[in-house]
Specification:
By secondary structure, the protein is of the alpha/beta class. Helices cover 39% and strands 12% of the residues. It binds glutamine.
Length: 499
């Protein structure tokens, strides 16, 4: 059962081969035996899960219900669920109980899906390795000495290790796609505004987007139909109706009989700035070469293109994201939310000690950078300049999307690294992990990371498909077509339980 796709689980539940309570229990048992090795969940919620599962079974006895009714899932711990602890990976919110439910989780609950618990993450989603979490590093199921990537490391590890069929995640600069590529999972960073940010703890509001991590493109597509959609409580929420992604995949399946050339006519752009042989690890380069050949066999045309300004993406991101984070994190003052230092002489000391003790090193570093970026003397030189370059990067993408339909590139320059090996004292090296993922956040465009091979040591490799605004349906089609003729995404890690 734990290897079943969402469609198979849906059928098993509909055919009464298994009840939601039984299925949920299966996953809870697996979590109980494996989570201490992986540290993927910060807060398992078994009682809540079994109660939701019981209600799903009751509902199914009388009605048909949503396609994903009764299927277990798990949430990144920056999504609020009323009455549940929501930590955002921080001591600051270590015992914060959410007073309301995020739009995303409301949608999940109204489909009747079963939240198993809250997943580990880098503190306030700042990081690329899950090592900044107050609740400890998450271990990569493919090699327990390595990181699963971040900041959605808990989501990626849980899905990869089959502790949950699917999970929510969030991506501000690559936090869905980078962990997807480190753990052999599929991750979509949707178009900005496609998924409501209501009840999502903010990091950098103009970049943050909730998406999904799953084991196949089809699973991610099915789940995205649940969480995408307009919400009037988020002023940046798009009003377009959500396409039926799964129906699009089915039409693809029907046309793919014609000699397997299901991507006939598709134009795939290859950004020369992302295909720099010495800029990415050799096995990733080789895997991408193979993927290009596969896409050609499927009928796609590969077109070399150029995005001249993307080399500035990381620099632009590390001006804009910390500036927004500085503002978003000002609310954690020890008064209104979260942690308050136990001893202080006066109000000023209460503020400073609460923030000094409540936040970790990386979060403080971002707050300091953000504070500096918004000072009178640096605002024009850095912040305004960064916004202008952000526009140039977006213009690059808009231009190339007149010549091609989607872009292909690596998700990351390296594969999963050892815990502690990319020194936390060397933030720049850590920041460069997101060199290929950040552009999609700066432009608001969607991007999908999917498995495309393994290194000789058996570490997963991911590749990224990027498209213009609201091209999710196309990205899913292209990714699904690739997964129809490759088996990478079906490989499961062999986790040895550690005591
Ligand atoms: N790694 C990037 C950062 O640390 C992106 C994080 C994210 O996407 N949430 O900011």
């Amino acid at each position: 059962m734990i290897e079943s796709s969402l469609k198979e689980l849906s059928k098993a539940l509909a055919d009464k081969k298994i009840s939601s309570v039984e299925l949920t229990q299966l996953y809870l048992d697996r979590m109980a035996s494996l989570n201490h090795s992986l540290n993927a969940f910060i807060t398992p919620t078994p009682e809540f899960a079994l109660e939701v599962a019981r209600r799903a079974d009751e509902y199914r006895a009388k009605n048909n219900g949503h396609r994903l009714l009764g299927i277990p899932m798990a949430n990144k711990d920056n999504l609020l669920i009323n009455g549940q602890r929501t930590t955002c990976g921080s001591r600051m919110l270590g015992d914060f109980i959410a007073p309301y439910t995020s739009h995303v989780v409301e949608s999940i609950l109204s489909a009747g899906m079963v939240p198993l618990g809250k997943l580990n993450m880098d503190e306030f989603a700042m990081g690329s390795s899950n090592q900044t979490s107050y609740f400890g590093v998450v271990r990569n199921p493919w090699d327990l000495t390595r990181v699963p990537g971040g900041s959605s490391g808990g989501s990626a590890a849980a899905v990869s290790a089959r502790l949950s069929p699917i999970a929510t995640a969030s991506d501000t600069g690559g936090s869905i796609r980078q962990p997807a590529s480190f753990t052999n999972t599929c991750g979509l960073k949707p178009t900005y505004g496609l998924v409501s940010r209501y009840g999502v703890i903010a990091f950098a509001s103009s970049l943050d987007q909730v998406g999904a991590l799953g084991r196949s493109v089809e699973d991610v597509a099915l789940f995205m139909e649940v969480i995408a959609g307009h919400d009037s409580r988020d002023s940046t929420s798009l009003s377009q109706p959500v396409a039926s992604y799964v129906a699009a995949l089915e039409t693809l399946a029907n046309t793919s009989h014609s000699g397997g050339r299901s991507l006939e006519g598709l134009r795939i752009g290859l950004p020369k700035e992302m295909f720099v042989e010495k800029g990415i690890d050799a096995p990733i380069w080789a895997a991408l070469e193979e993927a290009k050949a596969t896409f050609s066999r499927l009928g796609a045309t590969l077109i070399p293109i150029s995005l001249p300004h993307i080399s500035h993406s990381v620099a632009v991101y590390y001006v804009i994201a910390p500036a927004e984070a500085f503002s978003n994190l000002a609310r954690y003052d020890g008064v209104r939310y979260g942690y308050r230092t136990p001893e202080y002489a006066d109000l000023q000391e209460m503020y400073t000690k609460s923030r000094a003790e409540g936040f970790g090193e990386e979060v403080k570093r971002r707050i300091m950078i953000g504070t500096y970026m918004l000072t009178e003397e640096s605002f024009n030189i850095y912040y305004i300049q960064a916004q202008k370059v952000r526009r140039l990067i977006t213009d690059d993408f808009n231009r190339v999307f007149t010549e091609c339909d989607v872009l292909l590139g690596p998700s990351t320059p390296i594969t999963a690294f050892e815990i502690g090996s990319v020194a936390m004292e060397d933030p720049l090296q850590m920041y460069l992990n997101d060199i290929f993922t950040i552009p999609a956040n700066l432009t608001g465009m969607p991007a999908l990371s999917i498995p495309c091979g393994f290194t000789e040591q058996g570490l997963p490799i991911g590749m990224q498909l990027m498209g213009p605004l609201l091209s999710e349906e196309l990205l899913f089609k292209v990714g699904h077509a690739y997964q129809q003729v490759t088996q990478w995404h079906q490989q499961a890690p062999n986790i040895s339980v550690q005591h």
